[in-house]
Amino acid sequence: MPIKEDTISVLKQFDIGDNFSYLPAMPKASVLVPLLVKDGELYTLMTLRSKELRSNAGEVCFPGGKRDPSDRDDVETALREAEEEIGLPPDHVQVVCTLFPIINKRGLLVTPVVGFIEESFCPRPNPAEVSAVFTVPLDFFASEKDHFATHGAAGMMIPLHSFYYVDPDTGSQYHIWGLTAMVVIVVATLALRKKPEFDIGFDSEDPLPFFQQVLQRRLSKL
């Protein structure tokens, strides 16, 4: 089976459906995790936030943002934000699944939406929000080589992961950490069906119960 179709089949098994419909009303956000196939290998597209932004300025992240009242669901939020930030038309994204939400450091319930885009997509970053767009082999996030972790961070049930990636096309180095690193590790683990070389803190074959526990613990402290 071609790698794209195989990956879609695998990831669909982890779609959350309405498993989290019980959650209380709280501020929500979504990110789009764009996957693509390049030279027979899975890649993901990431962005560097503008240094002019009020929050998370200059950090690596996925396209995404807060839900608008007009958004029907998490998918629409992720697709709308991706179009606003990097010029990715919603109908150019093959949405695969919605993964379990994670509460970020600002108390937003962030839901990752995974979808495939074409390798030929040419980003048109909005300079007010995005200063760079780059792609990373998904397998990079399963390797110990450029990975660092802090264990036992205050209030954390899982390691705080960090990666340093040098883009071979530009020579630019990017620091990928925090929630973005956690999301991409989860996607890489599931999509590649490969346990990373480092401690991830959750069951690589069935991460949902662990992240439900993390979510409930965070909710109890809000």
UniProtKB/TrEMBL annotation:
Residues 26-158 form the Nudix hydrolase domain. Its cofactor is Mn(2+); Mg(2+). It comes from the Eukaryota. GO terms for cellular component: peroxisomal matrix. Signal peptide: none annotated. It is found in: Peroxisome. The keyword Transit peptide does not apply. Keywords: Hydrolase, Magnesium, Manganese, Metal-binding, Peroxisome, RNA-binding. It holds the Pfam family NUDIX. Its EC number is 3.6.1.77. Its main location: other. It catalyses: 3alpha,7alpha,12alpha-trihydroxy-5beta-cholestan-26-oyl-CoA + H2O = 3alpha,7alpha,12alpha-trihydroxy-5beta-cholestan-26-oyl-4'-phosphopantetheine + adenosine 3',5'-bisphosphate + 2 H(+); acetyl-CoA + H2O = S-acetyl-4'-phosphopantetheine + adenosine 3',5'-bisphosphate + 2 H(+); succinyl-CoA + H2O = succinyl-4'-phosphopantetheine + adenosine 3',5'-bisphosphate + 2 H(+); choloyl-CoA + H2O = S-choloyl-4'-phosphopantetheine + adenosine 3',5'-bisphosphate + 2 H(+). One of its GO terms (biological process) is coenzyme A catabolic process. It is an enzyme of class 3 (hydrolase). InterPro entries: CoAse (IPR045121), NUDIX_hydrolase-like_dom_sf (IPR015797), NUDIX_hydrolase_dom (IPR000086). Gene3D superfamilies: Nucleoside Triphosphate Pyrophosphohydrolase. One of its GO terms (molecular function) is coenzyme A diphosphatase activity. Monomer. Fatty acyl-coenzyme A (CoA) diphosphatase that hydrolyzes fatty acyl-CoA to yield acyl-4'-phosphopantetheine and adenosine 3',5'-bisphosphate. Cleaves CoA, CoA esters and oxidized CoA with similar efficiencies. Preferentially hydrolyzes medium-chain acyl-CoAs and bile acid-CoAs. Has no activity toward NDP-sugars, CDP-alcohols, (deoxy)nucleoside 5'-triphosphates, nucleoside 5'-di or monophosphates, diadenosine polyphosphates, NAD, NADH, NADP, NADPH or thymidine-5'-monophospho-p-nitrophenyl ester. Belongs to the Nudix hydrolase family. PCD1 subfamily. This is Peroxisomal coenzyme A diphosphatase NUDT7. It comes from Scomber scombrus. The lineage of its organism: Eukaryota, Metazoa, Chordata, Craniata, Vertebrata.
